[in-house]
Batch of 4 targets.
Target 1
Amino acid sequence: MPSELRIETPKMPAADIGPENPLPPLGSSRDLHAIKAPPPDIPEEMARQMAYGRVLNFLPYMLQDRYNRSREIPSFRVAVLETELLCATFLLEFGGRLWSLIHKPSERELLYATRSSSQQIWGCVTPEQ
């Protein structure tokens, strides 16, 4: 069987991310990912890596802090790439994120995935929260 690529629109429960907050994220100049003090039993290399890549603010991006937990059943566009051995499903509206990878001979799902979508951005909340 040759490889096959098709576009589908399955439905799955999802929470809406909501609109961007129109206010710029100017509320705090503190380090959003600051580590107060690493525990004394942490190796020096690990402590150094924990401090790497800290975010001082979100500019030039707007905050997306208006999401909710109410789930609906929208349709999502997915690309399904199928070969003799594998069937891979990619969520096109989430930047091509790999959603499912099935080993066809054993019918086994190779990825852990919940069958619903939560689009919230966990690391990007307002500093006051």
Target 2
Amino acid sequence: MAGCRRMWHDNAMPRATWNNKVLADCDNTVVVEGNHYFPADSLNKEYFKPSDHTSLCPWKGTASYYHIEVAGKTNENAAWYYPSPKSAASQITDHVAFWKGVEVKT
């Protein structure tokens, strides 16, 4: 995985969890506005389902979302990413951030 060392045993690295499952962990996140953006290759993709929801940020661009599904429970639009961020936010290209009860620990 380019740019991301996964170390499941290292509790010091940023890790996103929900419903007792690790959604992503990586030692190379990008922090923007207090949110850890995880590289796409650090995601446990089995828990991510595409969403049709979008939102607009004036300086980052249009965000797309994923639903998180774990053990039969769904957390709608709990992860977001910018497929084509504006140049001011180019560092979060191919990165995903979380909210809505997803816990990110560092």
Target 3
Amino acid sequence: MVTPEDIQGWIAQGLVDAEVTVEGDGRHFQATVVCADFEGKSRIQRHQMVYGVLGDRMKSEIHALSLKTLTSSEC
């Protein structure tokens, strides 16, 4: 079973210097990702970046993921 720590690690590994917090119950997760690379990108583009890092895990291991994506100036 996937844990919030697993998802946090996968995102942090793929988005260098990102601050990642993930909560969840094993099926439904909520992640807050703060990353300088999000600067100048739309919310959709930011979510696509996170989904790109997670890759096929979004199809098989992660049932539902709610994202909040911010730059440090938006916090």
Target 4
Amino acid sequence: MSKRAIVRPPGSKFKSCLSSHPLHHTLNLDLALEQHKTYCQTLTNLGLDLIELEPDNQYPDACFVEDTVVVHGNKAIITRMAKESRRGESMKVEEVLSEFKQIKSVVEPGTLEGGDVIHFPYSLLCGITQRSNHEGAVQMEEWLEVPVHCIEDLNIMHIKSHLTYLGRNTILLNPRYIGNPILNSYNQIVLPNEESHSANAVAIDDVVLMSIRHKKTAELVKAAGFEVVQLDMSEFEKCDGALTCLSIII
């Protein structure tokens, strides 16, 4: 059972986050801070002890701590982000994690971001996307000593927006990946076409945290026997971020 989550609230430059969202210009930092506080309180209510980092006012995207590292067992691999503007975000995360895990870093030419890595019970799945490449996946597999399967889709930023493991051999799945042989052994909750990006959800035991916008997907998850808690994440969505991005579960 997971015991801890590393989180970091948005910093003063959050409005300059990398984003292609059409409403990015409407981002409200004060509201983002309130939403982050609610997110953290929800994790606490679910039994996680929070390790709360100070806001990083140098890196606009630093609240999306998931991208900085992949943790498996007693090891962690510090990622190498595709966007150079984000590559300093991992420093404090590495410092904190070194108290709990053996650590190594991805090196050039590898790129890897946590938003592309899905944890299954006995393996990892890595999206080969606009942000993570095959070399990054190979380095991760070698250091973490766990089988890594890859799905290549260079049209997306992170695969966790399209695919998430909920536990109990069940996945949330964008229809575009139906029939992929890597996924055939899992029970599949196929996302509605109008909510095809709703897979980015945090599963803690039998509770699934989801965006309040994804009502149809939430009903499908409930029907599969999970409890669903929906949160308003509007300001993080304006930065192309979502629920899993905001924590590192260790």
